[in-house]
């Protein structure tokens, strides 16, 4: 007898608690439908987004720290002056105007590799205008194309990225277009330089 009353009382309590929970859920849904509530939620989400955008993906599932390249502090490979930047843009445009972005970056990389190599001058300007027995190292300087080119936005991007350290040149110090090069010149490259790879219309040597 008492057990029946106890079970009935317990059942009533469960019904009451369930009903109370349903009322609270309904109230929250009603609040959520109001413009003020939605704006409050959006403001909170915007704040979270603003504070977390640079922290996103810093830690991978394996526990290793991952830094997105856009938030890394990037150090310039070469602190070029405005004059040197234009010189590099002009020689890249003249030598690789028909290449894609990567091809242009590779040509810019060769110039910067020479700057860093003890066998070549120490500045972009000196490297680009260097002569060997009165012969210019870069044919566009010799034939005047260097002065006539119109620098494109893609070339500017290629130069900027190369200056900031993006480099897939493998340390190349020379590049040449076999198709348009003097056969004797190509023989010299094949005999005396180490061929690294070919990209687009250029072959790269160390």
**Sheet with the most strands: spatial strand order:** 3-5-4
How many strands, which pairing sense, and closed or not: the largest β-sheet? 3 strands, antiparallel
Mean pLDDT, all residues: 77
Residue ranges: pLDDT <50 for 5 or more in a row?
A: 29-72
Would you count the extended β strands for me? 5
Can you give the helix content as a percent range? Answer: 55-70%
Q: How would you classify the helix and strand content by structural class?
A: mainly alpha
Walk me through this protein's architecture:
This protein has 9 helices and 5 strands; from the N terminus they run H-H-H-H-H-E-E-H-H-H-E-H-E-E. The chain has 206 residues and is mainly α. Helix 3 crosses helix 4 (101-116). The N and C termini lie far apart (99 Å).
Highlighted features:
two-stranded antiparallel ribbon; mainly alpha; 206 residues; globular; 3-stranded antiparallel sheet
């Amino acid at each position: 007898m008492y057990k029946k009353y106890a079970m009935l009382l317990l059942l009533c309590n469960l019904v009451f608690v369930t009903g109370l929970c349903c009322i609270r859920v309904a109230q929250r849904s009603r609040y959520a439908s109001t413009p003020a509530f939605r704006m409050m939620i959006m403001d909170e989400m915007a704040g979270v987004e603003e504070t977390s955008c640079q922290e996103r993906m810093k830690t991978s599932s394996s526990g290793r720290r991952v830094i997105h390249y856009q938030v890394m502090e990037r150090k310039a490979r070469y602190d070029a002056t405005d004059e040197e930047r234009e010189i590099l843009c002009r020689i890249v445009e003249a030598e690789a105007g028909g290449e894609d972005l990567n091809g242009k970056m590779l040509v810019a990389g060769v110039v910067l590799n020479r700057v860093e190599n003890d066998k070549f001058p120490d500045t972009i300007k000196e490297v680009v205008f260097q002569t060997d027995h009165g012969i210019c190292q870069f044919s566009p300087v010799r034939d005047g194309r260097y002065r006539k080119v119109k620098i494109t936005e893609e070339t500017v991007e290629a130069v900027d990225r190369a200056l900031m350290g993006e480099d897939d040149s493998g340390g190349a110090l020379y590049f040449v277009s076999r198709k348009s090069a003097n056969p004797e010149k190509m023989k010299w490259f094949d005999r005396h330089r180490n061929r690294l790879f070919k990209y687009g219309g250029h072959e790269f040597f160390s």
